[in-house]
Design goal:
Layout lengths: L4 H9 L27 E5 L15 H10 L4 E3 L5 E3 L2 E6 L4 E6 L13 H12 L9 H5 L5 H5 L10 E5 L2 E5 L7 H4 L10 H7 L15 E7 L3 E6 L13 E5 L4 H9 L14 H7 L4 E14 L9 H9 L3 H9 L4 E2 L17 H4 L2 H14 L9 E7 L2 H18 L2 E7 L1 H10 L4 E7 L6 H4 L16 H12 L3 H18 L2 E12 L4 E2 L16 E2 L3
Parallel strand pairs: 1-10, 13-14, 13-15
Antiparallel strand pairs: 2-3, 4-5, 5-7, 6-7, 8-9, 9-10, 11-15, 11-16, 12-16, 17-18
Helix pairs in contact: 10-13, 17-18
Protein backbone atom coordinates (compact mmCIF):
# COMPACT_ATOMS: atom_id res chain seq x y z
CA UNK A 1 0.00 0.00 0.00
CA UNK A 2 1.07 3.59 -0.62
CA UNK A 3 1.55 5.91 2.35
CA UNK A 4 -0.69 8.49 0.72
CA UNK A 5 -2.47 9.25 -2.50
CA UNK A 6 -0.02 11.89 -3.64
CA UNK A 7 2.80 9.32 -3.41
CA UNK A 8 0.79 7.08 -5.69
CA UNK A 9 0.27 9.88 -8.18
CA UNK A 10 3.99 10.67 -8.19
CA UNK A 11 4.98 7.07 -8.80
CA UNK A 12 2.50 6.87 -11.61
CA UNK A 13 3.73 10.13 -13.12
CA UNK A 14 7.25 8.72 -13.07
CA UNK A 15 6.07 5.75 -15.09
CA UNK A 16 5.89 3.17 -12.29
CA UNK A 17 3.27 0.55 -13.04
CA UNK A 18 0.55 0.15 -10.42
CA UNK A 19 -2.93 -1.29 -10.41
CA UNK A 20 -5.65 1.09 -11.49
CA UNK A 21 -7.22 2.90 -8.56
CA UNK A 22 -9.08 6.07 -7.85
CA UNK A 23 -7.41 8.80 -5.82
CA UNK A 24 -8.26 12.36 -4.89
CA UNK A 25 -7.50 15.46 -6.90
CA UNK A 26 -6.50 18.80 -5.43
CA UNK A 27 -9.11 21.44 -4.68
CA UNK A 28 -9.23 24.61 -2.62
CA UNK A 29 -8.20 23.63 0.90
CA UNK A 30 -9.24 26.22 3.44
CA UNK A 31 -7.43 25.67 6.75
CA UNK A 32 -9.54 25.43 9.88
CA UNK A 33 -10.08 28.80 11.52
CA UNK A 34 -9.71 30.82 8.30
CA UNK A 35 -12.69 33.10 7.73
CA UNK A 36 -13.66 33.51 4.09
CA UNK A 37 -14.70 36.81 2.56
CA UNK A 38 -18.34 37.10 1.52
CA UNK A 39 -17.27 38.12 -1.98
CA UNK A 40 -15.20 35.37 -3.61
CA UNK A 41 -13.91 37.16 -6.71
CA UNK A 42 -10.31 37.18 -7.95
CA UNK A 43 -8.64 39.74 -10.24
CA UNK A 44 -5.36 38.65 -11.88
CA UNK A 45 -2.87 40.66 -13.91
CA UNK A 46 -2.01 38.68 -17.04
CA UNK A 47 0.74 40.60 -18.85
CA UNK A 48 -0.75 40.81 -22.36
CA UNK A 49 -3.89 40.35 -24.42
CA UNK A 50 -4.13 36.62 -25.14
CA UNK A 51 -3.65 35.53 -28.75
CA UNK A 52 -6.37 32.87 -28.35
CA UNK A 53 -7.97 30.60 -25.76
CA UNK A 54 -8.01 27.63 -28.15
CA UNK A 55 -5.48 25.23 -26.55
CA UNK A 56 -4.37 23.97 -29.96
CA UNK A 57 -3.62 27.46 -31.31
CA UNK A 58 -1.64 29.03 -28.47
CA UNK A 59 1.96 29.05 -27.28
CA UNK A 60 2.28 31.76 -24.62
CA UNK A 61 2.16 31.96 -20.83
CA UNK A 62 -0.74 34.49 -20.66
CA UNK A 63 -2.87 32.13 -22.75
CA UNK A 64 -2.01 29.10 -20.59
CA UNK A 65 -3.04 30.94 -17.42
CA UNK A 66 -6.56 31.50 -18.78
CA UNK A 67 -6.92 28.09 -20.44
CA UNK A 68 -5.90 26.34 -17.20
CA UNK A 69 -9.11 27.68 -15.63
CA UNK A 70 -11.33 26.90 -18.64
CA UNK A 71 -10.21 23.45 -19.72
CA UNK A 72 -9.00 20.41 -17.78
CA UNK A 73 -6.66 17.78 -19.17
CA UNK A 74 -5.93 14.25 -18.00
CA UNK A 75 -3.77 15.47 -15.10
CA UNK A 76 -3.17 18.65 -13.09
CA UNK A 77 -0.52 19.84 -10.64
CA UNK A 78 -0.82 20.63 -6.96
CA UNK A 79 0.70 23.58 -5.09
CA UNK A 80 4.08 21.80 -4.96
CA UNK A 81 4.15 20.95 -8.66
CA UNK A 82 3.30 17.28 -8.14
CA UNK A 83 1.20 15.51 -10.76
CA UNK A 84 -2.35 14.85 -9.56
CA UNK A 85 -5.51 13.58 -11.26
CA UNK A 86 -7.55 15.76 -13.57
CA UNK A 87 -10.16 14.20 -15.85
CA UNK A 88 -8.25 10.94 -15.41
CA UNK A 89 -8.91 9.49 -11.95
CA UNK A 90 -6.08 6.96 -12.37
CA UNK A 91 -3.63 5.58 -14.92
CA UNK A 92 -1.18 2.74 -15.43
CA UNK A 93 1.62 1.48 -17.66
CA UNK A 94 3.72 -1.66 -17.74
CA UNK A 95 6.43 -0.51 -20.14
CA UNK A 96 6.29 3.34 -20.33
CA UNK A 97 5.14 2.88 -23.93
CA UNK A 98 1.45 2.09 -23.59
CA UNK A 99 -0.47 4.19 -21.08
CA UNK A 100 -4.05 3.53 -19.95
CA UNK A 101 -6.01 6.42 -18.45
CA UNK A 102 -9.27 5.76 -16.59
CA UNK A 103 -11.55 8.80 -16.83
CA UNK A 104 -14.04 10.02 -14.25
CA UNK A 105 -17.62 9.20 -15.15
CA UNK A 106 -18.82 12.42 -13.49
CA UNK A 107 -16.65 14.73 -15.64
CA UNK A 108 -18.87 16.96 -17.79
CA UNK A 109 -18.63 19.75 -20.30
CA UNK A 110 -20.19 23.06 -19.28
CA UNK A 111 -23.20 22.25 -21.55
CA UNK A 112 -23.85 19.07 -19.56
CA UNK A 113 -22.36 16.57 -22.07
CA UNK A 114 -20.13 13.88 -20.54
CA UNK A 115 -16.35 14.22 -21.06
CA UNK A 116 -15.22 10.97 -22.66
CA UNK A 117 -12.12 9.30 -24.03
CA UNK A 118 -13.41 10.18 -27.51
CA UNK A 119 -12.99 13.89 -26.68
CA UNK A 120 -9.29 13.35 -26.02
CA UNK A 121 -8.88 11.25 -29.17
CA UNK A 122 -10.46 14.04 -31.24
CA UNK A 123 -8.44 16.76 -29.51
CA UNK A 124 -5.05 15.06 -29.83
CA UNK A 125 -5.69 14.38 -33.52
CA UNK A 126 -6.74 18.00 -33.99
CA UNK A 127 -3.51 19.21 -32.35
CA UNK A 128 -1.28 17.26 -34.79
CA UNK A 129 -3.42 17.86 -37.88
CA UNK A 130 -1.46 20.19 -40.24
CA UNK A 131 -4.80 21.86 -41.08
CA UNK A 132 -5.01 23.14 -37.50
CA UNK A 133 -1.56 24.78 -37.84
CA UNK A 134 -0.93 24.43 -34.12
CA UNK A 135 2.26 26.27 -33.07
CA UNK A 136 2.71 23.52 -30.47
CA UNK A 137 2.03 20.44 -32.60
CA UNK A 138 5.67 19.45 -32.05
CA UNK A 139 4.81 18.81 -28.40
CA UNK A 140 2.94 15.63 -29.29
CA UNK A 141 5.86 14.61 -31.47
CA UNK A 142 8.14 15.01 -28.43
CA UNK A 143 5.97 12.55 -26.50
CA UNK A 144 6.84 10.03 -29.29
CA UNK A 145 3.11 9.32 -29.68
CA UNK A 146 2.84 6.84 -32.52
CA UNK A 147 2.76 8.45 -35.98
CA UNK A 148 2.67 12.01 -34.57
CA UNK A 149 5.84 13.03 -36.43
CA UNK A 150 4.60 11.68 -39.77
CA UNK A 151 1.17 13.26 -39.35
CA UNK A 152 2.68 16.67 -38.59
CA UNK A 153 4.95 16.29 -41.63
CA UNK A 154 1.93 15.50 -43.81
CA UNK A 155 3.06 11.94 -44.49
CA UNK A 156 0.21 10.15 -42.68
CA UNK A 157 -3.43 10.83 -41.91
CA UNK A 158 -4.31 12.19 -38.45
CA UNK A 159 -6.46 9.13 -37.80
CA UNK A 160 -3.31 6.98 -37.54
CA UNK A 161 -2.26 8.76 -34.31
CA UNK A 162 -1.55 6.37 -31.44
CA UNK A 163 -4.51 7.39 -29.29
CA UNK A 164 -7.58 5.20 -28.79
CA UNK A 165 -10.87 5.16 -26.87
CA UNK A 166 -11.16 1.56 -25.65
CA UNK A 167 -14.53 2.60 -24.27
CA UNK A 168 -16.12 5.91 -23.24
CA UNK A 169 -14.01 6.19 -20.11
CA UNK A 170 -10.79 4.35 -21.01
CA UNK A 171 -8.14 6.17 -23.04
CA UNK A 172 -5.17 4.25 -24.44
CA UNK A 173 -2.09 6.08 -25.71
CA UNK A 174 0.71 4.27 -27.56
CA UNK A 175 4.20 5.71 -27.86
CA UNK A 176 7.02 4.89 -30.24
CA UNK A 177 9.61 4.98 -27.45
CA UNK A 178 9.47 4.47 -23.70
CA UNK A 179 8.99 7.87 -22.02
CA UNK A 180 9.07 7.57 -18.21
CA UNK A 181 7.86 11.15 -17.66
CA UNK A 182 4.97 10.91 -20.15
CA UNK A 183 2.21 11.40 -17.57
CA UNK A 184 3.83 14.67 -16.47
CA UNK A 185 3.67 15.82 -20.10
CA UNK A 186 -0.11 15.33 -20.10
CA UNK A 187 -0.55 18.41 -17.90
CA UNK A 188 0.31 20.79 -20.74
CA UNK A 189 -2.06 23.25 -22.43
CA UNK A 190 -1.75 21.60 -25.87
CA UNK A 191 -3.17 18.29 -24.62
CA UNK A 192 -6.30 19.75 -23.07
CA UNK A 193 -9.54 18.65 -24.72
CA UNK A 194 -12.00 20.68 -26.77
CA UNK A 195 -15.66 19.88 -27.44
CA UNK A 196 -15.88 18.44 -30.95
CA UNK A 197 -19.51 19.41 -31.58
CA UNK A 198 -18.90 23.03 -30.61
CA UNK A 199 -15.63 23.38 -32.55
CA UNK A 200 -17.16 21.88 -35.69
CA UNK A 201 -20.30 24.01 -35.40
CA UNK A 202 -18.63 27.40 -34.84
CA UNK A 203 -15.10 26.98 -36.25
CA UNK A 204 -12.71 29.63 -34.89
CA UNK A 205 -15.68 31.39 -33.26
CA UNK A 206 -16.11 28.58 -30.72
CA UNK A 207 -13.98 30.60 -28.26
CA UNK A 208 -16.46 33.52 -28.17
CA UNK A 209 -18.33 33.79 -24.84
CA UNK A 210 -21.70 33.07 -26.43
CA UNK A 211 -20.37 29.83 -28.01
CA UNK A 212 -17.79 28.63 -25.51
CA UNK A 213 -18.05 25.17 -23.94
CA UNK A 214 -15.31 23.94 -21.62
CA UNK A 215 -14.71 21.24 -19.02
CA UNK A 216 -12.67 23.26 -16.51
CA UNK A 217 -13.67 24.79 -13.20
CA UNK A 218 -14.76 28.01 -14.96
CA UNK A 219 -16.51 29.09 -18.15
CA UNK A 220 -15.99 32.18 -20.28
CA UNK A 221 -18.51 34.89 -19.41
CA UNK A 222 -17.13 38.11 -20.98
CA UNK A 223 -14.17 38.99 -23.19
CA UNK A 224 -13.47 42.64 -23.94
CA UNK A 225 -10.31 42.65 -26.10
CA UNK A 226 -7.39 44.57 -24.54
CA UNK A 227 -9.47 45.21 -21.42
CA UNK A 228 -10.52 42.06 -19.56
CA UNK A 229 -11.56 38.42 -19.65
CA UNK A 230 -14.16 37.37 -17.08
CA UNK A 231 -14.78 33.78 -16.02
CA UNK A 232 -17.52 32.38 -13.80
CA UNK A 233 -17.87 29.00 -12.12
CA UNK A 234 -18.80 26.02 -14.27
CA UNK A 235 -21.73 24.47 -12.39
CA UNK A 236 -21.15 21.21 -14.31
CA UNK A 237 -17.48 20.87 -13.29
CA UNK A 238 -17.09 17.50 -11.56
CA UNK A 239 -15.44 19.05 -8.46
CA UNK A 240 -17.40 22.30 -8.39
CA UNK A 241 -18.46 21.74 -4.76
CA UNK A 242 -14.84 22.27 -3.66
CA UNK A 243 -14.28 25.44 -5.72
CA UNK A 244 -14.42 28.63 -3.62
CA UNK A 245 -13.71 31.50 -6.05
CA UNK A 246 -16.91 32.42 -7.93
CA UNK A 247 -15.49 34.81 -10.53
CA UNK A 248 -12.03 35.31 -12.05
CA UNK A 249 -11.02 38.39 -14.04
CA UNK A 250 -7.85 38.52 -16.14
CA UNK A 251 -6.44 41.96 -17.02
CA UNK A 252 -4.03 42.20 -20.01
CA UNK A 253 -1.78 44.96 -18.64
CA UNK A 254 1.54 45.21 -20.52
CA UNK A 255 2.84 48.19 -18.55
CA UNK A 256 4.21 46.92 -15.23
CA UNK A 257 4.00 50.35 -13.54
CA UNK A 258 0.32 50.66 -14.43
CA UNK A 259 -0.27 47.14 -13.12
CA UNK A 260 1.60 47.95 -9.89
CA UNK A 261 -0.47 51.09 -9.34
CA UNK A 262 -3.72 49.18 -9.84
CA UNK A 263 -2.58 46.58 -7.32
CA UNK A 264 -1.66 49.25 -4.77
CA UNK A 265 -5.08 50.83 -5.34
CA UNK A 266 -6.70 47.51 -4.44
CA UNK A 267 -7.97 46.74 -7.95
CA UNK A 268 -5.83 43.62 -8.56
CA UNK A 269 -5.28 40.64 -6.22
CA UNK A 270 -1.98 39.58 -7.77
CA UNK A 271 0.17 40.93 -10.56
CA UNK A 272 1.77 39.22 -13.52
CA UNK A 273 5.14 40.73 -12.60
CA UNK A 274 6.79 43.75 -10.95
CA UNK A 275 8.46 46.79 -12.58
CA UNK A 276 12.20 46.31 -12.14
CA UNK A 277 12.92 49.92 -11.18
CA UNK A 278 10.34 49.83 -8.36
CA UNK A 279 11.26 46.44 -6.93
CA UNK A 280 13.55 47.60 -4.11
CA UNK A 281 11.09 50.29 -3.00
CA UNK A 282 8.20 47.83 -3.06
CA UNK A 283 10.22 45.29 -1.07
CA UNK A 284 10.87 47.98 1.56
CA UNK A 285 7.40 49.53 1.68
CA UNK A 286 5.23 46.45 1.01
CA UNK A 287 7.33 43.48 2.25
CA UNK A 288 4.31 41.26 2.89
CA UNK A 289 2.91 41.75 -0.61
CA UNK A 290 6.17 41.21 -2.55
CA UNK A 291 6.65 37.51 -3.23
CA UNK A 292 9.55 35.84 -5.03
CA UNK A 293 9.30 32.23 -6.13
CA UNK A 294 11.55 29.94 -8.14
CA UNK A 295 10.54 29.64 -11.77
CA UNK A 296 11.28 26.96 -14.34
CA UNK A 297 12.08 29.48 -17.08
CA UNK A 298 15.05 30.86 -19.04
CA UNK A 299 15.42 34.33 -20.57
CA UNK A 300 17.51 34.53 -23.75
CA UNK A 301 18.03 36.29 -27.07
CA UNK A 302 17.56 34.22 -30.19
CA UNK A 303 19.64 34.79 -33.34
CA UNK A 304 18.09 34.11 -36.74
CA UNK A 305 20.56 31.39 -37.74
CA UNK A 306 19.38 31.52 -41.36
CA UNK A 307 20.03 35.25 -41.89
CA UNK A 308 23.45 36.77 -42.52
CA UNK A 309 25.47 37.68 -40.57
CA UNK A 310 23.85 35.54 -37.83
CA UNK A 311 24.49 32.42 -39.85
CA UNK A 312 28.12 32.95 -38.74
CA UNK A 313 28.80 31.36 -35.33
CA UNK A 314 31.55 33.95 -34.67
CA UNK A 315 29.00 36.77 -34.74
CA UNK A 316 26.60 34.86 -32.50
CA UNK A 317 29.36 34.09 -30.00
CA UNK A 318 30.71 37.64 -30.02
CA UNK A 319 27.33 39.12 -29.14
CA UNK A 320 26.72 36.44 -26.48
CA UNK A 321 30.11 36.93 -24.81
CA UNK A 322 29.72 40.73 -24.66
CA UNK A 323 26.60 40.56 -22.46
CA UNK A 324 27.47 41.25 -18.82
CA UNK A 325 24.97 39.00 -17.08
CA UNK A 326 26.03 40.15 -13.60
CA UNK A 327 24.92 43.69 -14.43
CA UNK A 328 21.59 42.39 -15.75
CA UNK A 329 20.84 40.11 -12.80
CA UNK A 330 22.29 42.13 -9.92
CA UNK A 331 22.05 45.80 -10.91
CA UNK A 332 19.11 45.86 -13.32
CA UNK A 333 16.90 43.11 -11.89
CA UNK A 334 18.22 42.35 -8.39
CA UNK A 335 15.41 39.96 -7.45
CA UNK A 336 17.38 36.72 -7.23
CA UNK A 337 17.72 35.93 -10.95
CA UNK A 338 20.81 33.88 -11.84
CA UNK A 339 23.15 34.60 -14.77
CA UNK A 340 22.55 31.98 -17.48
CA UNK A 341 25.23 30.44 -19.68
CA UNK A 342 23.09 27.47 -20.74
CA UNK A 343 19.44 26.97 -21.71
CA UNK A 344 18.20 24.60 -19.00
CA UNK A 345 17.59 26.23 -15.58
CA UNK A 346 19.50 24.80 -12.65
CA UNK A 347 16.30 24.07 -10.71
CA UNK A 348 15.19 21.54 -13.34
CA UNK A 349 14.57 18.17 -11.70
CA UNK A 350 17.29 15.55 -12.23
CA UNK A 351 19.68 17.82 -14.12
CA UNK A 352 23.09 19.03 -12.98
CA UNK A 353 24.41 21.42 -15.66
CA UNK A 354 28.10 21.89 -16.45
CA UNK A 355 29.36 25.46 -16.91
CA UNK A 356 30.65 26.02 -20.49
CA UNK A 357 34.16 27.45 -20.93
CA UNK A 358 32.99 31.00 -21.65
CA UNK A 359 31.15 31.05 -18.32
CA UNK A 360 34.48 30.48 -16.53
CA UNK A 361 36.09 33.56 -18.10
CA UNK A 362 36.02 36.99 -16.50
CA UNK A 363 33.79 39.52 -18.26
CA UNK A 364 36.92 41.34 -19.44
CA UNK A 365 38.19 38.11 -21.05
CA UNK A 366 34.82 37.49 -22.67
CA UNK A 367 34.75 40.97 -24.20
CA UNK A 368 38.31 40.56 -25.52
CA UNK A 369 37.34 37.25 -27.14
CA UNK A 370 34.16 38.84 -28.55
CA UNK A 371 36.18 41.60 -30.26
CA UNK A 372 38.50 39.00 -31.75
CA UNK A 373 35.61 36.89 -33.08
CA UNK A 374 33.79 39.87 -34.55
CA UNK A 375 36.92 41.04 -36.35
CA UNK A 376 37.44 37.55 -37.77
CA UNK A 377 33.86 37.71 -39.07
CA UNK A 378 34.66 40.97 -40.90
CA UNK A 379 33.24 43.59 -38.53
CA UNK A 380 35.22 46.45 -36.98
CA UNK A 381 35.08 50.26 -36.65
CA UNK A 382 35.39 50.71 -40.42
CA UNK A 383 32.68 48.09 -41.06
CA UNK A 384 30.42 48.10 -37.97
CA UNK A 385 27.71 45.53 -37.34
CA UNK A 386 24.14 46.89 -37.33
CA UNK A 387 20.93 44.97 -36.79
CA UNK A 388 17.44 45.13 -35.22
CA UNK A 389 16.62 43.65 -31.82
CA UNK A 390 12.96 42.63 -31.52
CA UNK A 391 11.10 42.40 -28.21
CA UNK A 392 7.47 42.26 -27.11
CA UNK A 393 6.07 45.43 -25.57
CA UNK A 394 7.05 45.56 -21.90
CA UNK A 395 8.92 48.13 -19.85
CA UNK A 396 10.99 45.39 -18.23
CA UNK A 397 12.03 43.88 -21.59
CA UNK A 398 12.78 47.37 -22.89
CA UNK A 399 15.14 48.16 -20.00
CA UNK A 400 17.06 44.92 -20.54
CA UNK A 401 17.24 45.55 -24.31
CA UNK A 402 18.54 49.09 -23.75
CA UNK A 403 21.19 47.81 -21.32
CA UNK A 404 22.39 45.02 -23.61
CA UNK A 405 22.41 47.27 -26.68
CA UNK A 406 24.57 49.69 -24.67
CA UNK A 407 26.99 46.86 -23.79
CA UNK A 408 27.27 45.88 -27.44
CA UNK A 409 27.85 49.50 -28.48
CA UNK A 410 30.42 50.25 -25.80
CA UNK A 411 32.41 47.01 -26.03
CA UNK A 412 32.07 46.08 -29.71
CA UNK A 413 30.95 49.20 -31.57
CA UNK A 414 27.80 47.33 -32.57
CA UNK A 415 24.52 49.20 -33.18
CA UNK A 416 21.32 47.41 -32.22
CA UNK A 417 18.11 49.20 -33.17
CA UNK A 418 15.32 48.33 -30.75
CA UNK A 419 11.90 47.36 -32.10
CA UNK A 420 8.98 46.53 -29.83
CA UNK A 421 5.77 44.87 -30.99
CA UNK A 422 2.57 43.89 -29.21
CA UNK A 423 2.35 40.25 -28.18
CA UNK A 424 0.42 38.72 -31.10
CA UNK A 425 2.44 40.51 -33.80
CA UNK A 426 5.69 39.68 -32.04
CA UNK A 427 4.80 35.97 -31.88
CA UNK A 428 3.79 35.91 -35.57
CA UNK A 429 7.00 37.61 -36.73
CA UNK A 430 9.17 35.35 -34.61
CA UNK A 431 7.46 32.26 -35.96
CA UNK A 432 7.79 33.47 -39.55
CA UNK A 433 11.48 34.35 -39.13
CA UNK A 434 10.90 38.09 -39.58
CA UNK A 435 13.67 39.14 -37.20
CA UNK A 436 17.45 39.31 -36.86
CA UNK A 437 17.79 39.04 -33.07
CA UNK A 438 14.79 38.55 -30.78
CA UNK A 439 14.06 38.58 -27.10
CA UNK A 440 12.69 35.22 -25.99
CA UNK A 441 11.88 33.22 -22.91
CA UNK A 442 11.07 29.58 -22.38
CA UNK A 443 9.24 28.00 -19.47
CA UNK A 444 9.31 24.26 -18.96
CA UNK A 445 6.23 22.40 -20.18
CA UNK A 446 7.11 19.72 -17.63
CA UNK A 447 9.90 19.51 -15.05
CA UNK A 448 12.56 17.65 -17.04
CA UNK A 449 15.53 18.91 -19.07
CA UNK A 450 14.08 17.73 -22.40
CA UNK A 451 11.34 20.34 -22.00
CA UNK A 452 14.03 22.96 -22.67
CA UNK A 453 16.52 21.11 -24.84
CA UNK A 454 13.91 19.77 -27.29
CA UNK A 455 13.24 23.42 -28.21
CA UNK A 456 16.45 23.54 -30.27
CA UNK A 457 15.76 20.37 -32.26
CA UNK A 458 15.40 21.06 -35.97
CA UNK A 459 11.91 19.46 -36.08
CA UNK A 460 10.53 21.70 -33.32
CA UNK A 461 8.10 24.28 -34.72
CA UNK A 462 8.92 26.58 -31.76
CA UNK A 463 12.60 26.61 -32.77
CA UNK A 464 12.34 30.25 -33.85
CA UNK A 465 16.14 30.74 -34.13
CA UNK A 466 16.01 28.10 -36.91
CA UNK A 467 18.95 26.18 -35.47
CA UNK A 468 19.61 23.01 -37.41
CA UNK A 469 22.26 20.57 -36.23
CA UNK A 470 22.39 16.87 -37.08
CA UNK A 471 24.72 16.30 -34.13
CA UNK A 472 22.32 17.99 -31.71
CA UNK A 473 19.29 16.15 -33.10
CA UNK A 474 21.15 12.85 -32.76
CA UNK A 475 22.07 13.48 -29.11
CA UNK A 476 18.49 14.44 -28.25
CA UNK A 477 17.09 11.39 -30.08
CA UNK A 478 19.45 9.19 -28.05
CA UNK A 479 18.36 10.89 -24.84
CA UNK A 480 14.72 10.26 -25.64
CA UNK A 481 15.37 6.55 -26.23
CA UNK A 482 17.54 6.09 -23.15
CA UNK A 483 16.11 4.02 -20.30
CA UNK A 484 18.86 5.07 -17.89
CA UNK A 485 18.55 8.30 -15.91
CA UNK A 486 22.33 8.62 -15.71
CA UNK A 487 22.81 8.14 -19.46
CA UNK A 488 19.99 10.57 -20.22
CA UNK A 489 21.52 13.26 -18.00
CA UNK A 490 24.94 12.77 -19.64
CA UNK A 491 23.31 13.24 -23.05
CA UNK A 492 21.56 16.41 -21.85
CA UNK A 493 24.94 17.76 -20.71
CA UNK A 494 26.32 16.93 -24.17
CA UNK A 495 23.40 18.78 -25.78
CA UNK A 496 24.18 21.89 -23.71
CA UNK A 497 27.84 21.64 -24.81
CA UNK A 498 26.72 21.68 -28.44
CA UNK A 499 24.58 24.76 -27.81
CA UNK A 500 27.60 26.52 -26.25
CA UNK A 501 29.67 25.51 -29.29
CA UNK A 502 27.11 26.61 -31.91
CA UNK A 503 25.51 29.45 -29.88
CA UNK A 504 22.14 29.61 -31.69
CA UNK A 505 20.88 31.64 -28.74
CA UNK A 506 22.41 33.90 -26.09
CA UNK A 507 21.27 32.70 -22.65
CA UNK A 508 20.91 35.71 -20.34
CA UNK A 509 19.34 34.75 -17.01
CA UNK A 510 17.34 32.14 -15.13
CA UNK A 511 14.03 33.51 -13.97
CA UNK A 512 12.57 33.95 -10.57
CA UNK A 513 8.99 35.14 -10.36
CA UNK A 514 8.54 38.36 -8.40
CA UNK A 515 4.99 39.59 -8.08
CA UNK A 516 2.69 41.56 -5.83
CA UNK A 517 0.27 39.25 -4.05
CA UNK A 518 -2.52 40.41 -1.77
CA UNK A 519 -2.45 38.87 1.71
CA UNK A 520 -6.15 38.14 1.38
CA UNK A 521 -5.46 35.48 -1.32
CA UNK A 522 -5.21 32.01 0.18
CA UNK A 523 -4.00 28.73 -1.33
CA UNK A 524 -1.35 30.32 -3.56
CA UNK A 525 1.06 27.67 -5.00
CA UNK A 526 4.39 29.16 -3.87
CA UNK A 527 6.28 25.90 -4.51
CA UNK A 528 5.07 25.21 -8.04
CA UNK A 529 8.17 25.83 -10.18
CA UNK A 530 6.15 25.82 -13.42
CA UNK A 531 3.82 28.53 -12.06
CA UNK A 532 0.73 26.45 -12.72
CA UNK A 533 -1.83 28.47 -10.80
CA UNK A 534 -5.36 27.05 -10.73
CA UNK A 535 -7.91 29.62 -9.59
CA UNK A 536 -10.10 26.75 -8.32
CA UNK A 537 -7.47 26.03 -5.65
CA UNK A 538 -7.47 29.63 -4.32
CA UNK A 539 -9.79 31.51 -1.96
CA UNK A 540 -10.25 35.05 -0.62
CA UNK A 541 -9.82 35.56 3.12
CA UNK A 542 -11.91 38.03 5.09
CA UNK A 543 -10.03 41.16 6.17
Amino acid sequence: MFKNKITQALLLSAGVSVAAASFSAVAAHVPAGVKLADKQELVRGNGAEVASIDPHKTEGVPESHVIRDLLEGLVNQDADGKTVPGVAKSWETKDNRTFIFHLRKNAKWSNGDPVTAHDFVYSFKRAVDPATASPYSWYLEMTTMKNAADIIAGKKDKDTLGVFADDDYTLRIELQEAVPYFVKMMGHTTVKPVNQKVVEKYGDDWTKPENFVGNGAYVLDKWVVNERIELVRNKNYWDNEHTVINKVTYLPIENQVAEMNRFLAGEIDFTYEVPNEHFRRLEKEHPKEVTITGNLCSYYYGFNNEKAPFNDVRVRKALTYAIDRDIITKALLGQGQKPAYFLTPEITAGFDPVQPDYAKMTQKERVAKAKELLKEAGFDSSHPLKFTLLYNTSENHKKIAVAIASMWKKNLGVTAELENQEWKTYLDNRRQGNFEVTRAGWCGDYNEASSFLSLMQSNNSSNDPRYKSEAYDKVMAQALKSTSDEEREALYVEAEKLLAKDMPIAPIYQYVKPRLLSQKVGGFPYNNAEEKIFSKDLYIKAN
